[in-house]
């Protein structure tokens, strides 16, 4: 079957390790299902895998891709939940949690095999391309907002780094849930897009906000950390799920954190139940993922290049 896969690790030039070509079809195994992939979406996780983060040389070649929507062996339209091992379903009970492509072949292929427990029905209201955007970036944003930040309608939130998959999702979800939304981006066009998506206002990074916020959605890391902490009201919550600009800010702002009794919460992915809730939320409200580009699988390299260059707003989707 045709696939996009990591053939080698290159920490400095990750795309040098990306290959497109034939790979073996998944083999049947008890408790697992094989999905015919209709659409899959890119995440920064795929780029980091090519750098060797979470993926060792001993596991190569590895088909990339965490997210997919497709059709199972029984003809059901399904969405793949990409975390394997968390529940023990379909794998050993002591197996640690991992994301597809860390231990198991991924979704950038004509077929993917996952534990049957990892499949959720695709709402008929969502296309395969839309549904394929949700399991990683959009699920991460959903958990950050509604589980770990604990925001309620009427609260205010700052989303750092508008344009990235998680940040874009957070803007759309927060607005749909009745929040006041501020966003930042270095790029004027991306600030305008953020406002078009529902942000009440968008600013350059580091700008003083009209008011301090109840929560900050942080995926940028070192470059925006100080601004995130300073933008919170007393008792507010900073939720972080990534650090694309680096993990070590120049100032940790510890005095401000303890004096204002701020909460700093780490967040990774989300649960299967949260993904089910997110699918329902999109189906009921009409919220749809923001898609930057749709490409056929054989043009996956173009999608990786857009993501590596930061030249996108929303998700890159690969169709099979």
Can you characterise this structure?
- The chain has 320 residues and is an alpha/beta fold.
- Helix 6 links the parallel strand 14 and strand 15.
- 48% of the residues are buried.
Largest sheet, in brief, is:
7 strands, mixed
- pLDDT below 50 for ≥5 consecutive residues: which ranges? none
**Beta strand count:** 18
Q: Helical stretch count?
A: 9
Helix vs. strand class: alpha/beta
* Beta-strand content: 25-35%
Radius of gyration: 19 Å
Could you say which overall geometry the principal axes of the C-alpha atoms support? globular
Order of helices and strands: EEEHEEEEEEEHHEHEHEEHEHEHEHE
- N- and C-termini, Cα separation: 11 Å
Short description:
The chain is built from nine helices and 18 strands. The chain is of the alpha/beta class and 320 residues long. The longest helix is centred in the middle third of the chain and has 15 residues.
What keyword list fits this structure?
globular, 18 strands, six-stranded parallel beta sheet, alpha/beta, 320 residues, seven-stranded mixed beta sheet
Task: Describe the secondary structure blueprint for this structure.
Layout: E1 2-6, E2 18-22, E3 32-41, H1 44-50, E4 62-63, E5 67-71, E6 77-80, E7 83-84, E8 98-99, E9 111-115, E10 119-121, H2 128-131, H3 134-148, E11 156-159, H4 165-176, E12 180-184, H5 188-197, E13 201-203, E14 213-218, H6 225-230, E15 232-240, H7 254-259, E16 263-266, H8 272-285, E17 291-296, H9 300-309, E18 315-319
Parallel strand pairs: 11-12, 11-14, 12-13, 14-15, 15-16, 17-18
Antiparallel strand pairs: 1-2, 1-4, 3-5, 3-9, 3-18, 5-6, 6-10, 7-8
């Amino acid at each position: 079957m045709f696939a996009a896969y990591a053939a080698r690790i290159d920490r400095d030039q990750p795309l040098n390790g990306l290959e497109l070509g034939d790979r073996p079809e998944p083999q049947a195994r008890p408790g697992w299902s094989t999905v015919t992939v209709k659409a899959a979406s890119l995440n920064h996780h795929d780029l980091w895998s090519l750098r060797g983060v979470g993926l060792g040389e001993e596991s190569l070649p590895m088909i990339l891709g965490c997210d997919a929507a497709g059709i199972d062996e029984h003809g059901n339209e399904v969405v793949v939940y990409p975390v394997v091992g968390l529940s023990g379903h379909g794998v050993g009970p002591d197996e640690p949690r991992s994301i597809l492509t860390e231990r198991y072949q991924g979704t950038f292929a004509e077929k993917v095999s996952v534990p049957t427990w990892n499949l959720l029905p695709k709402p008929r209201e969502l296309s395969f391309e839309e549904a394929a955007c949700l399991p990683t970036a959009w699920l991460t944003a959903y958990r950050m907002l509604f589980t770990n930040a604990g925001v309620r309608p009427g609260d205010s939130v700052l989303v750092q780094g508008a344009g990235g998959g998680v940040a874009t999702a957070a803007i759309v979800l927060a607005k749909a849930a009745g929040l006041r939304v501020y966003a930042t981006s270095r790029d004027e066009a991306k600030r305008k897009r953020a406002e078009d998506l529902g942000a009440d206002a968008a600013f350059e990074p580091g700008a003083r906000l009209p008011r301090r916020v109840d929560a900050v959605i942080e995926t940028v890391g070192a470059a925006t950390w100080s601004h995130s902490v300073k933008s919170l009201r007393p008792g507010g919550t900073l939720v972080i799920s990534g650090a694309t600009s680096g993990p070590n800010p120049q100032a940790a702002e510890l005095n401000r954190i303890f004096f204002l009794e701020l909460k700093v919460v780490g967040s990774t992915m989300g649960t299967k139940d949260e993904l089910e809730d997110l699918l329902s939320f999109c189906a009921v409200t009409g919220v749809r993922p923001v898609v930057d580009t749709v490409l056929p699988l054989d043009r996956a390299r173009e999608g990786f290049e857009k993501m590596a260059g930061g030249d996108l707003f929303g998700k890159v989707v690969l169709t099979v």
